[in-house]
Amino acid sequence: MARLKEEVEEKKKLIATLRNKPWRMKRRLQNLKEAQGFVEKFEGALGKGKGRKLYAFKVMMAKKLIKFNRDFENFKTACIPWERKIKEVESHFGSSVASYFIFLRWMYGLNLVLFGFMFGLVIIPEVLMGLPQGSIPRKTVPRDEQDTAMDFSVLSEFGGYFRYSVIFYGYYNNQNTIGFLKFRLPLSYFLVGIGIFGYSLMVVIRTMARNANEGGDGADESEFTFCWKLFTSWDYLIGNPETADNKYASITTSFKESIVDEQENQKDENIHLRRFLRVLANVLITCSLGGSGYLIYFVVKRSQDYAKMDSSQLSWYQKNEVEFVMSLLGLVCPPLFETIAELEDYHPRIALKWQLARIFALFLGNLYTFLFALIDDVNEKLEKEKVIKNETIWALNQYYANYTLYHNVTQNIPLPEIAPADVIRGPCWETEVGIEFVKLTVSDIEVTYLTILIGDFMRALIVRFLNYCWCWDLEAGFPSYGEFDISGNVLGLIFNQGMIWMGTFYAPGLMGINILRLVSSMYLQCWAVMSSNVPHERVFKASRSNNFYMGILLLVLFLSLMPVVYTMMTMSPSFDCGPFSGREKMYDVVIETIQNLPPFMANIFTYASNPGLIISIVLLMVLAIYYLNTVSKAYQKANMDLKRKIQMQRDEEKNRRNNKDSTNQVMKDLEDLMPNKSLIPPPAAEEPANPAPPSKSPKVTGKAGTAATGRGVNLQRDVSLAAANPRGPVTRPPGPRGPGPLPGVGRGHPPGPGRGRGRGGPPPLR
Amino acid sequence: MQIRLYRNCQVEQEGEVWFALVKFVSARNKDESNQRLCRTNRTNNTMGATASKLPKDQLSEYQELTFLTKQEILLAHKRFNELLEREDRQQIGGSRVPMNKILTLPELKSNPFRRRICQVFSTSDLRDGSLSFEDFLDLLSAFSDSATLEIKSHYAFRIFDFDDDGTLDTGDLEKLVNCLTGEMDNTRLTSEEMKQLINNILEESDIDKDGTVNLSEFQHVISRSPDFVSSFKIVL
């Protein structure tokens, strides 16, 4: 009975793994029908007895679950957008260009979820259940701004009505609960702000782990260069003849280059000159990085001065100087770095890595300088706020004093009735920060689109049509068509995401703007790539580039987390705008909520935040990391060991076949000790080169077995070569060793009783 | 209608380009499956010619046995139908498509291994590389996104084994290199370079030093490669 059940289970497992077997469809169909028939026949039989109904029910539920899973998978794949578009790009440009678009689509998915959080938990409650526009001071445009509030120039700076809307932090009210659902908006705002980072972190790490599993385990890059070039360099997604031709050319070039590399000796070149040039190049680049950082700081400071001046006297350039300069630096510096890098004369792959590192440093430096300048600004505003707050309190006291004088009442004095538009306002610093980030993002979008339109499309138009009346061949010569710059675009995408992460806490509407940007960018770039770009001439990818870009994304996530957490922890919120107004620090809202919880939960929190507990948890995690690291190193060592053993084994065999002289030192030493001078028996007649791959395994182990049967010493060779080849289907059971595959040839002498492997009794003599 | 400004594309006359430019910029992207450049009038034939549909139980069996999703199997069915002669369309289960027709598929047209692929996946007794529908599904399943590394490396090995003897010996490797370097004479490697290349390859991958690469050595090399799984893909 139990055995029957086992067999049914086995058949079920077979059905589940049928698609993994490299058989023909006919054979698989046959097996499937057999297994299914068997299962159905005996499943009913198994159910006889007490638990029959329950068993049948369980079986039915299992079947339905499998079907449901499969339908769900189908549905999920049907929901993935832009599949056709990306496939088209793939067939024309190969998989490396398409990987950018796949990354863009992944970003879109991530941002969609974050937008869902922000929109559903923060914006919608405020809009639906909060006070309407114009009812309280923070939601109203001040009196003196009202006549310019709808001007396009003001709106394009995100002032006017935009500033006092749900897009920015300042709009939100600080009531503890709003609406009939008693929704706690300040708490929700804070938690969503933190939750955005938490969710992004989780998703990025999960994707990195998945990529790491598929990408193979840390094999050395130079270990299999030729083999990989030969076996894996063709991209099967290419469906376009020109791309195919390009690919042929690049493969040939790479073969020729690597052959030459292998052959040539170390060139006798001037090492000192090279080193000097490299140092010079690095110095130049550091200088330009420093220069760009200083430029940004200078420009931000200047813009603060401009902000104090009357805005009608400033030109457009002066008002948008910061964004303009930052975008310009982002456009000009990377080609500059590439030109300077010509001095260094590295291998292209290493040069690419240096270039990416430098661009990364550039963007980081720029962003952080920008942030420092902004924080200075914020501190200034906080000072100003104190002054205004004092003024307001003073004015209120005056009002109370007057009121008391007039009406002779000292208690329950009603608040002064001022229209919300006339109330004195503080300089809400969070909204200012939010506006800066939104302006930066928008200008970045504009610059990207302009670059695509002018740099790629216009260029292609000019090259195509001006070629008829130009002196030299524009297509082959100087401008020619542009290639799609994968790394530049991916880095741009990553840094944009970093800015979004930084700015979302202060401008909830920024997520929506980002979603629009990603969608339009996908369509625009797909169109631009197909119409104006050519496939790459040289194709070399930074290996494991998927995880490389994910790693940068993770780094950017941490770097953008830091400023937000810093401002949350140290700066006090404005007193009259935003959901945290009136509190000392922003995280006070969480502490208040915890204190208001029922007592036993408050107790749990108090115990959990005990420093002793936290320190011990941190220690535990550090130990776990150390342990896992050690285990992984041990696995790698075991791998190397096994490989070496295989190598040694084969060397041994080959030498025995050739000249009967052992190359293994251990064997040599033992031989010298032995009286008979040779442990190795005369080789059995050569086995015919067995063509079928699976029999390699028994053939190999067979020979190892024979080597162990000595005239005296039985060496325990515990290398189990069967473990090294798990993939070949085992066509014969691991039978007795020795002259297994050779039925017709006798052995030299009867084998000894102990075979050194403990595999059953002595083999039958054939 | 998609235009490409790059010279060797299908846009012929000048006037057409400008007109097409205007039309394109103002038009919306319609059915994108019609926009591949080298498309013939195949799409017109599909209207009303798909008389045979895939029965539901067969569909679910195929889903069970391959790595393809339902939509992919249906799409494969449609495309396979287009390749069949009109009179064979009713009986899609038994009929075979000759190799030269399979090679007109845009996904295979530019592939240097297209003939080997057809021969490896073909179960025809005449060894002529013709594929039945089930062979076609096998092909797509092995080349699909969700196929495992084992399946892909198994089939890759068989595709590269030009003489079908179960190992990749020097002759196979030479033919492989020649396929990859294109058909033009000026792109081929000289015999010196070829010898050097093959030596290097055998040095790297031949663990048991018998002068050939067998399946397990091949799989050992391939499993370490980060690019193999993502490049060994064909999607309809």
Automatic annotation (TrEMBL), chain A:
Highest taxon, organism lineage: Eukaryota
Positions of region (Disordered): 647-666, 674-766
Stretches that traverse the bilayer: 106-131, 152-172, 187-205, 279-300, 355-375, 505-527, 548-566, 604-628
Any GO CC annotation of this UniProt entry: plasma membrane
Kinase keyword on record: no
Biased composition (Basic and acidic residues): 647-660
Compositional bias per record (Low complexity), positions renumbered to this chain: 697-710
Localization: Membrane
Protein name: Transmembrane channel-like protein
Organism field: Pygocentrus nattereri (Red-bellied piranha)
UniProtKB/TrEMBL annotation, chain B:
Transmembrane regions listed in the UniProt entry: none
Annotated ranges, domain EF-hand: 148-183, 193-228
GO MF entries: calcium ion binding; magnesium ion binding
Protein biosynthesis is among the record's keywords: no
Lineage: superkingdom: Eukaryota
Keyword annotations of the record: Calcium, Magnesium, Metal-binding, Repeat
Protein name: EF-hand domain-containing protein
Organism: Pygocentrus nattereri (Red-bellied piranha)
